[in-house]
Amino acid sequence: MGSTRARGLRRLGSAAVDLAWIADGSLDISITLGNRPWDTAAGALIAREAGAVVIDADGSQHSTQSRCVVAAAPGLEHEVLTLTSLIHDSPFWQDPTFPTALSTTKET
Length: 108
What we know:
Blueprint: H1 15-24, E1 29-33, H2 37-49, E2 53-55, E3 68-72, H3 77-84
Antiparallel strand pairs: 1-3, 2-3
Helix pairs in contact: 1-2
């Protein structure tokens, strides 16, 4: 079922595939929640190099510290940021305590 804003919603199961499809133009927008750096680092680079906009759900630059990734064809990022405001209070919103590959914890 579609609308005037979206024709469909699909979860591919791989952030890397989503970002590669953004890069080659197969997808216009991808929103991925609960990322780990190893899920998105290569795909984000490929999408950026292809001209896509890759940002965090709050509009800041996506980095290895980001918990969400929003990738969009140029010009669509403002449309999708309106939608990401819906996840602001969800468990997937950027959390400074979120563990990443760059942070370490010592087990006792």
